[in-house]
Design goal:
With 204 residues, the chain is α+β, with helices and mostly antiparallel strands. The protein has helices spanning 3-31, 34-37, 85-96, 196-203, and strands spanning 49-50, 57-62, 67-73, 78-81, 111-113, 118-123, 126-131, 136-140, 149-151, 157-162, 165-170, 177-178. The relative contact order is 0.07.
């Protein structure tokens, strides 16, 4: 081989090797960027969710597998788990008649109710309410309970208006049922009260 050709071949091989090494280094560096590195790090951040008393908070602690939910009382210097993932997953599975993995619980936030004895959260398009002492859960649909509603005379049903239509639901926590589909905005000539039509229907 001529000297010039030999030098060219060696230079080409060296350049290709250098570019390949740079590509490997770039890939290695990319793995350490925030969106990739965060998957490999546990316990790296605390986003406190303060309770109404303003003295305590809970946060979601990311683990190598899944996450845990931690309640912190800085004044009393207490840190404890809000619930046991395995027991909660078992209670959810029983209530929903499906299987939930304690490592992959299908929610990231919740709220305390009933003096912090229960928690409520949305998962699988349903609203769960779980007692922390007994680890029992009930499930209902996810239409907000904060809306005004009226109760039937036998206390078996609730009626309310959602998006200008009338809905009812059993008070035992089962799914809501839509009764009307032609509701109109009361500001443009519809009913003047969100209570009146549900009350009439529940009394009929």
């Amino acid at each position: 081989m001529r000297p010039v050709a030999l030098v060219g071949a060696l230079f080409g091989a060296s350049l290709a090797s250098s570019l390949s090494a740079q590509a490997v280094d770039y890939r290695r560096a990319e793995q350490m960027l925030d969106w990739n590195a965060s998957r490999m790090i546990s316990g790296d951040s605390v986003a406190p969710q303060w309770l109404p008393d303003g003295n305590r908070f809970w946060y979601r602690n990311k683990l190598a597998e899944g996450a845990e939910y931690v309640l912190v009382d800085p004044v009393a210097n207490v840190r404890r788990l809000v619930f046991d993932n395995a027991r909660l997953a078992a209670a959810m599975s029983l209530a929903r008649d499906t299987s939930y993995d304690p490592i992959k619980l299908p929610f990231t936030t919740f709220k305390f109710v009933d003096r912090e004895r229960d928690i409520e959260f949305k998962a699988s398009k349903k609203l769960f309410r779980c007692q922390l002492a007994s680890y029992t859960c009930t499930v209902r649909d996810t239409l907000p309970d904060e809306r005004p509603f009226v109760v039937s005379p036998d206390s078996a049903w609730e009626g309310f208006v959602h998006q200008y239509n009338v809905w009812i639901r059993p008070r035992n926590g089962a799914d809501s049922m839509q009764l009307t589909t032609d509701g109109t905005d009361p500001r443009i000539g519809g009913p003047s009260s969100t209570h009146e039509i549900p009350r009439r229907l529940l009394r009929s």
